[in-house]
Amino acid sequence: MQRRLEKEWELSIGPDTVRLFILKAKALSAAVNEDYADGAEHEVELDGEAHDNHHHDGLVEESSEDLTEEELRELINDLNVDEAAELVALAWVGRGDYDASEWADALTAARERANKRTAKYLLGMPLLADWLEEGLEAIGA
User: Fold this and answer.
1) What pTM was estimated for this model as a whole?
2) 33 pLDDT more than 60
């Protein structure tokens, strides 16, 4: 029975990979928070003629923020079914939907709900980085 419990805690997705997601999610969250804090909406309106020769420094910043979200989205989309389910289950454990002792249940529920919108679902979580961190800590990974 002890062997079975140990097996439950093994992750297909490496803890270092989850930590990479956490860093990306924190960077994304920081960019969003800065926008809200300074009241900036970062929208640039261009008329039809001006876009060919118009340069705006804000676009570089905007691209890097979008790149972070796009990178995170691509990383999540590149996960296999088991890894994606584990990432969702970690977020749920970190959020408190499941206790660490209910890891197998969280993982089963995440696998049952698996679909092609996992990245959208996870990126829609306002505290994704915190929840992933807390999930990793809770299961001792």
Assistant:
1) 0.70
2) no
